[in-house]
Amino acid sequence: MSEDSECFRGSTPGQGNDLSPSSVFRLRDLDHLEAIYAGKETGYFYARDGHPNAAMLAAHLAELEGGEAALVAPSGMGAIASLLLHLLRPGDRLVADAQLYGKTSTLVDRHLRELRIEVALVDLSDDAAAKEAIRPGTKMVWIESLSNPMLRWSPIDHLAELATKAGATLAVDNTFTPPPILRPIDLGAHVVMHSLTKIISGHSDVTLGCLVGKKSLIDEVKGTASTFGYHAPAFDCWLTERSLPTLDIRVRAACDNAHKLAQFLREQPGIKRVIYPGLNDHPEHAWGQRFAPLAGHMLVFELAGRDEVNRLFQRLKHVPFCPSLGDVTTTVSHPVSTSHRTRPPEERQQLGITDGLVRVSVGVEPIKQITSDFQQALAK
User: Fold this and answer.
1) Is pLDDT at 39 greater than 70 in this prediction?
2) Packing angle between helix 234-243 and helix 52-65, nearest 10 degrees?
3) How many angstroms separate the CA atoms of 296 and 176, rounded?
4) b/e per residue, 38-66, with b = 16+ CB within 10 A?
5) Quick check: is 219 catalytic?
6) Choosing from 44, 139, 152, 173, which is the catalytic residue?
């Protein structure tokens, strides 16, 4: 049990951050508890409702994304569920981009519909379709800054205008493009979500998520998160805090490697196509150049089919097959088998997620080490 709930010992990420594993915190008296509930004093009483490590991490994440406040959740999906469960009621209308992470698609397309929430899955890169879908009465719009796995930029600035005009909340999953790549709030987004498990934590030893936005909204969502038990473990918060000082340098190094790897893979035999936002043939290359100084650490390429992907994964010596992303080590994944395996086959085909599609999360190793491994695996 912690003797005192005020544990802010430093303002620099990763410095002065003591691990506070307490599940309960000692209070002076009843007046102290009421002052905490009223926001008149900073403090904690039960870890599910907040603890020093989550509070410190939240403050730094809000600063990172340019928001007023942040909420740390036990996973990216936990953060999404907290927001959706707080904002949406039966009869409300949600507009979501058709290209989303598979679990997010399942959450909105299946489970929200079961709660009698109207869901419209729309290609929001189509201006006419976006204008028709985001109409007055829409409660919320959900997009990804860069879609998983097809890496399509969302026109965040334009969608923010449409959502604001319709009275809707625009929420952006910014997991693929954290600062220094992009800050959606600067482009008009109302809420930003991250799977902190990925590149922000960056070492495959944390499972966390977060929401960043206006303090009034975040404070309300915290109550919903507590009710549903979405509690962020102190140790994971502490580990993520450790990672923040190196985020900028890790992101820049990974983005540089990704661009070079994309150019290399375009020249390799057996590869049908390579998709990377930094390549000139990317559909939203111009939008990305305007708003995102870096093109991201993710890329996808396509082989002939599942058998070819399986053989590639077997032959890679240093690049592991891991169904996640954002590590300092380069990894590969197969969206049909992992991130989008729960989505209908016809939907995957429509989005271009074929059996031969390989998603690559590029790390910070020497680029020669990465390209050499792919070269020997593809050559065989």
Assistant:
1) yes
2) 40
3) 7
4) eeeeebbbebebbbbbbbbbbebbbebbe
5) no
6) 173
Q: 247-379 in CATH: which number?
A: 3.90.1150.10
Q: Can you tell me the mean pLDDT for 33-60?
A: 92
DSSP H helices in the chain: 30-37, 52-65, 76-87, 102-106, 112-114, 127-133, 156-166, 215-227, 234-243, 247-265, 285-291, 306-315, 345-351, 367-379
User: pLDDT tens-digit profile of 290-346?
Assistant: 999 999 999 999 999 999 999 999 999 999 999 999 999 999 999 999 888 778 888
Please measure the distance between the N-terminal and C-terminal CA atoms of the chain and give it in whole angstroms.
Answer: 58
40 flagged as catalytic: no
Which distant-in-sequence residues (6+ apart) come within 8 Å of 38 by Cβ? none
Residue 8 in this model has a pLDDT that exceeds 50: no
pLDDT above 90 covers a percentage of the chain that reads: 87
Known catalytic residue: 230? no
- Which of the following is catalytic: 92, 93, 97, 101? 101
Across the chain, what does the average pLDDT equal? 93
Among 84, 65, 36, CA closest to 225: 84
Active site residue 44: no
**Given 152, 183, 198, 343, the catalytic residue:** 198
Residue 271 token pair: 């590869």
What CATH number should be reported for the domain whose range is 30-245? 3.40.640.10
At residue 33, φ and ψ (nearest 5 deg) are -60, -45
- In the DSSP assignment, the letter for residue 296 is -
Average pLDDT over residues 76-98: 97
- In this structure, are strands 209-213 and 191-195 parallel, antiparallel, or unpaired? antiparallel
pLDDT score, position 9: 32
- CA 336/CA 121 separation, integer angstroms: 20
Nearest to 372 by CA among 342, 322, 343, 330: 330
> Residue ranges of the domains in the chain?
30-245, 247-379
Paired tokens of 362: 């590029």
377 pLDDT above the threshold of 90: yes
Residue-level pLDDT at 42: 86
